[in-house]
User: Fold this.
Amino acid sequence: MARTTDLSSSALLDVVEQVALRPVRGEGAHLFTAAGERYLDFYGGHAVALLGYGHPALVAALDRQARTLFFQSNIVPLDVRERAAASLVRFGPPGLSRAFFVNSGAEANENALRIAFLATGRPRVVAVEGAFHGRTAAAGAVTAGHERWYGFPVEPFAVTWVPFDDAAALERAITSEVAAVILEPVQGVAGARALSRAFLETARTATAAAGAILIFDEVQCGMGRTGHPFAAQAHGILPDVLTTAKGLGGGFPVGAVLVGEALAAGIRKGDLGTTFGGGPLAMALVEAVIATIEAEGLLARVRRLSARLRSECLVGPVTAVQGMGFLLGLRTVSPAKDVLARLRGKGILAGGSADPHVVRLLPPLILEDAHVDELVAALKEMQP
Ligand SMILES: Cc1ncc(COP(=O)(O)O)c(C=O)c1O
Assistant:
């Protein structure tokens, strides 16, 4: 099967290497093409389809909200927005009691960095090699490899890069110039690489000692994907700011920035703003996603099936499994793109990563044992 589609005759700008699979429908953990081909989706549109496709609770919430009030901005108070914020801060790490809603992961990080600069008045940010925080000006400046695509004439602030999981280097980097340390507890785009608890603890203690802000970017690894509401809770480490997006709306664009009372007290009216952020459709979905994760006991399911994936996927071309929960990287002997093509040939869609030998798995939290069996059987049949 060809890897890419030809967009030369399309009205779309050709900016992404597409997979030659044109889904027309999704149901549960599966995508279907017009020809009726069925694909088991272990990728979820970059980790967004958190509860799979067509989950009745999400469809009902969207339908109900669309019929009631389709849109209003945060210039007016909305019950649904306040309920979504209350659900999210209850689901999130205790201590982060205030939410600001935006539309995407990059926008959440852009605002998190802005909060750190406003709070500290300092000029520098520390980031971790391999990081992906988004493609906007500030988030892009702390994203690895941005030299290739950044596009803006100047970078907005100074950045100190520390090697992945090097706690001593991190400690040295956190000087009195540093406004924030931003990190993904589990790096997604880099290939599902989890930072160690020791590194995260150093980040917490060293930022607190230096008066810098610790930002956890849980845009990809948050919302239950680690088998805990957020990686912050999995590790028992409380950042000053936590960002999330992707699965937060189960497919509807929405991002959020969470902060504690101390930071919130210093944020004044007008410091942050948005037109679409906190719109009622997105808010109804945030509320429904969290309620569904809790009602269906999905965190326990993630932990159980992740343990199966970690041990049973060590077959065929796979030599190691890394990551946490349902953000896993399969290290492969042959190039990941070949393994991905062979999996697609067997009706399974998975993802690549920045590492050419890591296949990324981002299945929906509703995954079942039979789906794990199917992936393991497909890998087993493959020559390394
Ligand atoms: C950890 C992380 N942060 C931020 C982003 C950017 O999110 P968005 O594409 O919604 O702007 C991504 C996207 O892949 C991500 O994985």
Observations:
- The CA atoms of residues 6 and 18 lie 9 Å apart.
- The chain has a mean pLDDT of 97.
- Residues 46, 104-106, 109, 132-134, 184, 188-189, 217, 219-220, 245 surround pyridoxal-5'-phosphate (CB under 6 Å).
- The first strand starts at residue 23 and ends at 27.
